[in-house]
Amino acid sequence: xxxxxxxxxxxxxxxxxxxxxxxxxxxxxxxxxxxxxxxxxxxxxxxxxxxxxxxxxxxxxxxxxxxxxxxxxxxxxxxxxxxxxxxxxxxxxxxxxxxxxxxxxxxxxxxxxxxxxxxxxxxxxxxxxxxxxxxxxxxxxxxxxxxxxxxxxxxxxxxxxxxxxxxxxxxxxxxxxxxxxxxxxxxxxxxxxxxxxxxxxxxxxxxxxxxxxxxxxxxxxxxxxxxxxxxxxxxxxxxxxxxxxxxxxxxxxxxxxxxxxxxxxxxxxxxxxxxxxxxxxxxxxxxxxxxxxxxxxxxxxxxxxxxxxxxxxxxxxxxxxxxxxxxxxxxxxxxxxxxxxxxxxxxxxxxxxxxxxxxxxxxxxxxxxxxxxxxxxxxxxxxxxxxxxxxxxxxxxxxxxxxxxxxxxxxxxxxxxxxxxxxxxxxxxxxxxxxxxxxxxxxxxxxxxxxxxxxxxxxxxxxxxxxxxxxxxxxxxxxxxxxxxxxxxxxxxxxxxxxxxxxxxxxxxxxxxxxxxxxxxxxxxxxxxxxxxxxxxxxxxxxxxxxxxxxxxxxxxxxxxxxxxxxxxxxxxxxxxxxxxxxxxxxxxxxxxxxxxxxxxxxxxxxxxxxxxxxxxxxxxxxxxxxxxxxxxxxxxxxxxxxxxxxxxxxxxxxxxxxxxxxxxxxxxxxxxxxxxx
Length: 678
What we know:
Blueprint: H1 3-18, E1 25-28, H2 32-44, E2 48-54, H3 61-65, E3 68-73, H4 84-94, E4 98-100, H5 110-118, E5 122-123, H6 128-135, H7 137-146, E6 154-155, H8 162-172, E7 176-180, E8 189-192, H9 195-213, E9 218-222, E10 228-236, E11 242-254, E12 257-263, H10 270-286, E13 291-299, E14 305-311, H11 318-325, H12 329-337, E15 354-361, E16 363-364, E17 369-370, E18 373-374, E19 377-379, E20 384-385, E21 388-389, E22 392-396, E23 403-404, E24 411-419, H13 422-435, E25 437-439, H14 445-453, H15 455-459, H16 466-470, H17 482-499, E26 507-515, E27 518-527, E28 530-535, E29 538-545, E30 552-557, E31 561-570, E32 574-579, E33 582-589, H18 591-598, E34 611-613, E35 618-623, E36 630-631, E37 636-642, E38 645-650, E39 655-660, E40 667-668, E41 673-677
Parallel strand pairs: 1-2, 1-4, 2-3, 4-5
Antiparallel strand pairs: 6-9, 7-8, 7-9, 10-11, 10-13, 11-12, 12-15, 13-14, 15-24, 16-17, 18-23, 19-25, 20-21, 22-24, 26-27, 26-33, 27-28, 28-29, 29-30, 30-31, 31-32, 32-33, 34-41, 35-37, 35-40, 36-39, 37-38, 39-41
Helix pairs in contact: 5-6, 8-9, 13-14
């Protein structure tokens, strides 16, 4: 740690020793990983915690971690985690002195903060006025301009209707960003490049904004093509102090939601960092901000930066800032809410090392669609590896046996790694992802793993269009390179030999390994307890680690590369494994078995060209056609809401509606029929 960091830590230790704990009992008005995260800091301060939960979350990890728990309603968040009265009643009945809202749900709801204040309960966040001013993207831009903060050109008023949206978009100039005035997290946001896209975007964004935030107001601003998304973490108190905790680079996004973040940014200079930090503090002081907050900027290729929005809550990606500064942001939020001054001054804040965060989602990374189900296997990566610190932090709210529900955000965890420099932090993340065992649901770790190995990402050449540019046809699922194939084939060959309970005595066995529709003949040779695998005119020495038992396996090849492999299932013939996070079914047969298999008929795939199938599990919120209607290809015919996102389903072909298989309000599975065409 730097000298400044050590002095700040020593100063903080002295203050902690002299300041009483901020509260005796705190209710956390949230669920999942963020509720668990807040509870950890409360526990370290000796503060008792109260969890709230819906009826389907009664056995969730955050409920088990808390000292007390109160059920606040049924599964839909509108009837539980967004029920202000139920949560306030829970706080009153349990004697909680304060409420921490986490992020999402009621975290930026000024009415909730006011209701708590009316009941004599502290809101662990900014005051009502700051929430209201910064939560309204229209008002926040007006305040930002007055405070001397750089802003994006756009329309600062409320967009009244579709016609007004088209007119304003033409005045501002295409492309434009249509976005919800309230809320954030990528919900209620659409980019439009022409009038037709504005009309569609206005409809979908207003519906999504109303469903997510109870506010369907929209604004329109110029879309800055190919920018970076860089944000500044600030802390402010009621004593006039305001500091910035450096920046976070959040440019790797999909659907306007962050996927990979890092701190600091490899792009900006110390001078730009200082200017951004000072403008962020100017904005906070303009609304008498008191708590943790994040000011988000778009940064162009010339390092010009423009105010995007301010999130008046604890940010999802706050852990990477904690890693490089040593500041417990939740701790500071608790103390500020209790009326204490900040524990740090600006001179205490430095940059110590590098941190990377991957958001691990329950979703199909190929189609970007959510996945629900039971976690049949779940093991978080180890902090220790080969007697050295990997620098791993995993903020999660689940355990093996937990369910991923249709009703809530699909995030499984925030996986964070850190090291003395960017390269080390990224390498730690690659190792951590390889060790992260998640089974039972589909998840996005294959995409995360591929991003980390991407040459552009490694060089720091990124923007918010990174995924779109690197995968113009979409992420395909991680095809094996020749080198990767050369690691997987011999590793599985030896794994199969061990799993089949074959004697380790000297000898050789021939197999045919089938992977990704390719058949590879191999020979496993055992000599003096050592393994070698011959395939494709080469021989590789393979040293297994840990035998054939356990999910995580390691294979050292030619005393050089180490291949981590997750062994999920084995039916005697087919091994289901994860290699570089991608799940693969690898079949191992003897040559005779393979000859018999080659004579088996190939199963014909069902023709679904006349069907509209739901691509994800969710709730049908709209069906805009009737049986017998004529529709054109690409026409929106239904909307399925999944994990708080509106997903427009469009006709796959032109034709007439033969049968409607679902109705509004139905809960549908992924791959379930919605409509049938003639």
